[in-house]
Specification:
By secondary structure, the protein is an alpha/beta fold. It has a single domain, classed as Ribonuclease Z/Hydroxyacylglutathione hydrolase-like (Metallo-beta-lactamase, Chain A, 4-Layer Sandwich). About 30% of the residues lie in helices and about 25% in strands. The radius of gyration is 17 Å and the shape is globular.
Length: about 260
């Protein structure tokens, strides 16, 4: 059985665990090593059970716990070449653990086929991931200002999608953030809005996606209800009814199960 748990999701820190058979993959380590250990403990796991860490990009809400994690447990770290260079600069002793990867080039890891794809974010070389497992495919798309062609193509046919729904545009534009920060978030190298998430959710549901987990919600410029209602209304209007839920901001999520032998179309 292939499962996903979010350990934390939002501006305060992001980390996700994908488990496939006996392998466990941590995607991002944006919370403290202690919090990662505690969350894994709730799943009767420990960092020693983690097979590898995948890093989407070098922002602190995705790597803040990585230095302690790799220092204590010496886990292999997969990241794009641009992100790997940033990690080597920021984290002493991580270079021997780095496994640089190229977007668009699938590789196998313990019976799971992993494909990184390019996203659009204000970092060196941000990516997200598709995991093809014996139970079906899962995809992750967060921290991107728009859905890139690579993301749309690579994620086509996944059974389960973890999808950024970062902000409500009206809440952001009328809120207290300084102008430069609003412009950053709204730019093509920022974050997906609820409306943008809804558009892509419809596209993915049309390709067979059965479950969508909305993630990386802003605490200041969004609410779970706003994100859920925006995406649900758009899906219903298009005649689709995938399972829809919200990843909790700072706690361990429910278990999301990857089901369905879908393939890329």
């Amino acid at each position: 059985m292939t499962t996903i748990h979010t350990l934390s999701s939002g501006s305060g820190g992001n980390s996700l665990l994908l488990s496939c058979g006996g392998a466990h993959y941590l995607i991002d380590a944006g919370i403290s090593c202690r919090r990662i250990k505690n969350a894994l403990g709730e799943l009767s796991l420990s960092p020693e059970d983690v097979s590898a860490v995948f890093i989407t990009h070098e922002h602190s809400d995705h790597i803040s716990g990585l230095a302690s994690l790799v220092k204590q447990y010496r886990l292999p770290v997969y990241a794009s070449r641009g992100t790997a260079a940033q990690l080597a600069y920021r984290i002493a002793g991580i270079e021997p653990l780095l496994c640089p990867l190229d977007p668009g080039e699938p590789f196998s890891l313990a019976g799971c086929c992993v494909t990184a794809f390019s996203t659009s974010h204000d970092t060196a070389q941000s990516v997200d991931f598709r995991f093809d497992t014996p139970d079906g495919a899962a995809g992750i798309l967060t921290d991107t200002g728009y859905v890139t062609a690579e993301a749309a193509d690579t994620l086509r046919g996944v059974a389960l999608l973890v999808l950024e729904s970062n902000h409500d545009v009206e809440s952001l534009t009328s809120g207290p953030y300084p102008y430069y920060l609003k412009q950053r978030i709204l730019s093509d190298r920022g974050h997906l809005s609820n409306d943008a998430a809804a558009d892509f959710a419809v596209e993915m549901a049309g390709c067979g996606t059965r479950e969508i987990v909305l993630a990386h919600l802003s605490q200041e410029n969004n609410t779970p209800a706003m994100a859920f209602n925006t995406v649900e209304r758009r899906l219903q209007a298009a005649g689709y009814d995938p399972r829809l839920s919200i990843a909790p901001r700072g706690t361990l999520s429910e278990c999301y199960t990857v089901e369905g032998l879908l393939c890329r179309k």
